[in-house]
Design brief:
By secondary structure, the protein is mainly beta. It folds into 6 domains: 143 residues, Immunoglobulin-like (Sandwich); 92 residues, Immunoglobulins (Immunoglobulin-like, Sandwich); 92 residues, Immunoglobulins (Immunoglobulin-like); 93 residues, Immunoglobulins (Immunoglobulin-like, Sandwich); 108 residues, Immunoglobulin-like, CATH 2.60.40; 30 residues. It is built from 2 helices and 50 strands. The N and C termini lie far apart (193 Å).
Length: 617
């Protein structure tokens, strides 16, 4: 269309308006996108031509037209035309035809605003051209136009607009993807997106093979979807997948991204150990401890501790069960102690998820050499005194049983047993029938005697006096009892004991001082051997201060012994400390000074009295 036509358009249009200013056009019932209008000839006023216009709502509203004007009475046909959907990467064949006319019209092509050359297929009374278009995504929304011209006049056009289907420009992305460590019960939000493409890709989700519905966040040029998953242990080793589909590959995926879950969860079963609780076992025996726990991811780690110390077990872990065994050779040091199997796992880092223990009750006998008796051996005692014996045996499980026999007869002691010590006390009054007799403490374990301890009594008792003859009846050749026993506690913490020796019975005799202060009789360790004198003196030291002591003398020779019936008594003095000595000295000096002053005062008073008396006379 030239400048001339544009200038005439205004007046030319007025010629086609009705009196009411309306423009009449006709619609086609069979083809809604086709209208018909009538135009008058510029040269013959009575001549009217029909014009058909094909239109659409696309980028190019007029897609074709036909006019009955003799020079343009040609129908432009194009296939395809209008808006067509084409997949990027394919070639599209366009054909344009116009029938009639002389000479035939010229057909030209323009695509995306640029002139392109088609293949001329004109023959006889048909103008025809074919254009092969290699379509890519740059054609999306663009058009190709076939234009028919006669000489220099355009008599018609046909247009095709491309809706190009092309894949997204970027790769499908998902976060997180690959392998994902996650605790059972935790939630994770998966984000999947892909940019570009026409139309925008469709994203779908599958978890453990089942369809899941995500949250659509698609924008103008980017397909995006998120999916929040709360993970439990059934997800372990399974995946969630984001799948992209699009019309460039109908019925097939154009992209897939996955995340595989490594679900951290605690074992399904409780920790078990055999044996557990309390275990009776003999010292020297061995026991194999078996500890296991099934399930969990990862499998639990099992460690051993015995008596508080780490021990190394034998690992027997399988696919779904953590298992460990530990063989322990038990001795008596295990008694009352435990071995523990401890389970740890990533669900509770740094802490135990389970613990099982076995406490050993180790059966072992005590050592016979550990029997202790006080006193033991030969014990010298005085007739009529109370004797206390204590027997102990340390160790053993269970503890040993202690029994008493005195003068071949069973006796019952007082049980003093504690947690790891068997103990018994026997208290009785000694008379002369115990002389030369013994008391025995016997230890039995599991009905077997494991040891004994014995004490033999040397009983000191007075001789028998015949009241008719006043004659002392002595054992033949035994010494006579010492007499004139005297004790003087003049020292600090000591006493001087003296006595007169009796007849020695024809054998050299010796003497030993016996003393008592708390109801028990003690022997002073120093022995005095007979000499030419009958008078003997011995200083007994290391005595308790401020205590009353009673002394007797034991005389003995190779035949026998006898104890004096005479007794010596005294109270032992305490040693005076230097401070106390100083105080006593100071007090003495003070008393002396007071005495002198009193004497001088008395003399003065007497002198005054005498003078007054002389004056009166």
């Amino acid at each position: 269309m030239g400048v001339y036509q544009l200038k005439q358009a205004k007046s030319y249009i007025k010629e086609h308006l009705a009196e009411d200013g309306q423009y009449e056009l006709m619609l086609c019932r069979e083809k809604p996108d086709l209208i018909k209008v009538q135009v008058r000839s510029q040269h013959v006023a009575s001549k009217v031509y029909n014009l058909w216009i094909e239109y659409s709502n696309g980028l190019t509203p007029i897609s074709g037209w036909y006019c009955q004007y003799p020079l343009a009475a040609r129908s432009i046909w194009m296939s395809p035309s209008g808006t067509i959907t084409v997949i990027s990467g394919t070639s599209q064949s366009l054909e344009c035809q116009v029938k009639g006319g002389n000479p035939l019209v010229t057909l030209t092509w323009r695509c995306k605003g640029s002139e392109v050359v088609g293949v001329n297929l004109s023959k006889d009374s048909l103008s025809a051209s074919r254009l092969i278009v290699p379509v890519d995504q740059t054609y999306n929304g663009k058009e190709c136009v076939c234009t028919a011209t006669n000489s220099t006049t355009t008599i018609g056009e046909k247009t095709v607009v491309f809706d190009v289907i092309y894949a997204p420009t970027d790769k499908l992305m998902m976060s997180p993807s690959g392998n994902k460590d996650i605790g059972a019960g935790d939630s994770v939000t998966l984000d999947c997106h892909v940019r570009g493409g026409n139309p925008i890709a469709t994203l779908t989700w599958r978890c453990k093979g089942a369809l899941r519905t995500g949250k659509n966040l698609t924008s103008t040029d980017t397909a995006r979807s998120t999916l929040t998953v709360t993970v439990d242990k059934t997800y372990n080793g399974h995946m969630c997948a984001c799948i992209a589909t699009q019309q460039t590959n109908p019925g097939r995926e154009i992209g897939r991204k996955t995340v595989e879950f490594n679900v951290i969860y605690a074992p399904t079963d409780k920790l078990m150990m055999s044996p557990s609780g309390n275990k009776d076992i003999g010292a020297g025996d061995s026991v194999t401890l078996d500890c296991h726990v099934r399930g969990g991811n990862p499998i639990a780690t099992l460690t051993w501790r015995c008596k508080g110390a780490l021990r190394t077990g034998k690992n027997m872990t399988s696919t779904d069960t953590a298992r460990s065994t530990l063989t322990v050779r038990v001795d008596k040091t295990y008694n009352g102690h435990m071995c523990a199997c401890i389970a740890t796992q990533q669900t509770n880092p740094g802490r135990e998820i389970g613990r099982k223990t076995v406490e050993f009750n180790v059966i072992y006998a005590p050592l016979a050499t550990n029997i202790y008796l006080l006193p033991s051996g030969t014990e010298t005692v005085t007739n009529g005194t109370t004797q206390r014996l204590e027997c102990q045996l340390k160790g053993g499980n269970p503890l040993a049983t202690l029994t008493w026999r005195c003068k071949e007869s069973p006796r019952i002691g007082v049980n003093l047993t504690t947690s790891n010590l068997s103990a018994s006390r026997l208290t009785f009054t000694v008379d002369e029938t115990y002389h030369g007799q013994q008391c025995v403490c016997t230890a039995t374990y599991s009905k077997t005697t494991i040891g004994t301890k014995t004490v033999v009594f040397n009983v000191l008792y007075a001789p028998v006096i015949n009241l008719n003859t006043s004659k002392v009846i002595l054992s033949e050749d035994s010494p006579s009892a010492p007499t004139q026993v005297f004790a003087d506690c003049k020292g600090f913490g000591s006493a001087e004991v003296s006595w007169l020796a009796g007849d020695n019975g024809g054998h050299t005799q010796s003497f030993q001082v016996l003393y008592q202060t708390d109801g028990n009789v003690y022997k002073y360790p120093d022995i005095v051997t007979e000499n030419d004198s009958d008078d003997y003196v011995l200083t007994v030291e290391n005595l308790a201060e401020q205590s009353l002591y009673i002394f007797t003398i034991l005389a003995f020779n190779n035949v026998g012994n006898v104890t004096s019936t005479d007794l010596g008594k005294c109270t032992v003095h305490g040693e005076v400390s230097p401070n106390k000595q100083t105080a006593i000295f100071s007090a003495s000096v003070a008393m002396l000074c007071i005495g002198i002053l009193a004497l001088l005062l008395t003399i003065g008073v007497i002198a005054i009295f005498v003078k007054r008396k002389d004056a009166i006379l």
